[in-house]
Automatic annotation (TrEMBL):
UniProt xrefs under PANTHER family: TRYPTOPHAN 2,3-DIOXYGENASE
Protein origin, superkingdom: Bacteria
Species lineage: Bacteria, Pseudomonadati, Bacteroidota, Flavobacteriia, Flavobacteriales
InterPro entries noted in UniProt: Trp/Indoleamine_2_3_dOase-like, Trp_2_3_dOase
Protein name: Tryptophan 2,3-dioxygenase
Coiled coil spans: none
GO MF annotation: an example: L-tryptophan 2,3-dioxygenase activity
């Protein structure tokens, strides 16, 4: 004798029938699929075997696997950060609470990345790194498009121009003109000849269309704009302001300081320095006090702007050998 269908199950069946009514198939067809479907496993859900097959070193040095794995982890966190920023941009509620919640997630992701950067600074053999890095040319972390997209989603392009040239541009200028003067391009351009490195040429060819498309999409709706569109009461929320300032500091000071620490450990030497992969000039490109990039300049005092990132000079990793 068949057991009677429980009322709560019958109700769920009705809801499923309603859901699939306009799909072109009846509920029975979907139930057939469910009946024959395999049980889901953890390793299938996260595609574990595929994920673990993506670390493919170019050399026989054991520590290269650390290097490639950490960079892949970083890109996954960047993906999560962009996921949260896009939700802020798409939000129509205009509440400080929603804005703050999403930014706190972003700051949490960056905190994990910053706190784990010891893996890069102290977690690899220096001699191995200086050898296997030569097999990576002209690839460079400089070519992380997701990091550039975080910047584009966060603030108007004009705020991403080197501080020395920023006054020459405004939000009324064509995005294409401003884009040509973004601060990071100077880090991979020969100052004497004006010639772009192969690393920069490759990056621009591969990603400029994507970056420009997104820059146009968020021209008036970056995180900076979304904050200014909030009602005045919401703009003055102290928790939101703190979250914005923390985001700015994490990206434009702390994250760069971690890279400075790694560069000093692996690339600095008493007589000159070892060039970074791709030919980027890390001593002129990485220090935050040189570029003074700020996503939300209105949230910082003139003194804070003037001293932006100055702490890199005395940063503890500058003396790491």
């Amino acid at each position: 004798m068949n057991e009677p269908i429980q009322p709560e199950i019958a109700e769920k069946i009705k809801q499923l029938e309603k859901k699939f009514k306009n799909s072109g198939q009846d509920l029975g067809s979907y139930l057939d699929g469910l009946l024959h479907d395999r049980y889901l496993t953890y390793w299938d859900y996260i595609h574990l075997d595929t994920l673990l097959s993506l670390q493919i070193p170019r050399t026989h040095f054991p520590d290269e696997e650390i290097f490639i794995t950490y960079h892949q982890i970083t890109e996954l966190y960047f993906k999560l950060i962009i996921h949260e920023l896009k939700q802020i941009i798409d939000d129509k509620l205009q509440t400080a609470q929603f804005f703050t919640t999403k930014l706190e997630r972003v700051n949490r992701y960056f905190r994990v990345l910053i706190n784990s950067f010891d893996v890069m600074i102290k977690g690899m053999d220096r001699d191995q790194f200086l050898k296997y890095r030569m097999s990576l040319l002209p690839a460079s972390g400089f070519q992380s498009v997701q990091y550039r997209l975080i910047e584009i989603y966060a603030t108007p392009l004009v705020n991403l121009v080197n501080v020395k040239n920023r006054s020459q541009f405004s939000e009324q200028d064509k995005l294409e003109d401003v884009f040509e003067h973004l601060y990071w391009k100077s880090g991979a351009t020969d100052k004497e000849t004006g010639e772009k490195t192969l690393t920069l040429k490759q990056f621009e060819y591969r990603y400029t269309p994507r970056m420009m498309r997104i820059a146009h999409q968020v021209k008036h709706s970056t995180i900076f704009h979304k904050y200014l569109e909030l009602p005045e009461k919401e703009q003055n929320n102290v928790h939101l302001i703190e979250a914005l300032r923390t985001f700015d500091t994490n990206v434009n000071i702390n994250w760069l300081l971690m890279h400075m620490g790694a560069a000093f450990r692996y690339l600095n030497k008493e007589k000159g320095e070892v060039l970074a992969t791709g030919g980027t000039n890390w001593k002129k490109f990485l220090p935050p006090s040189f570029q003074r990039i700020m996503f939300f300049p209105d949230l910082w005092s003139e003194e804070e702007k003037e001293n932006w990132g100055q702490q890199w000079v005395a940063h503890q990793f500058n003396t790491v050998k």
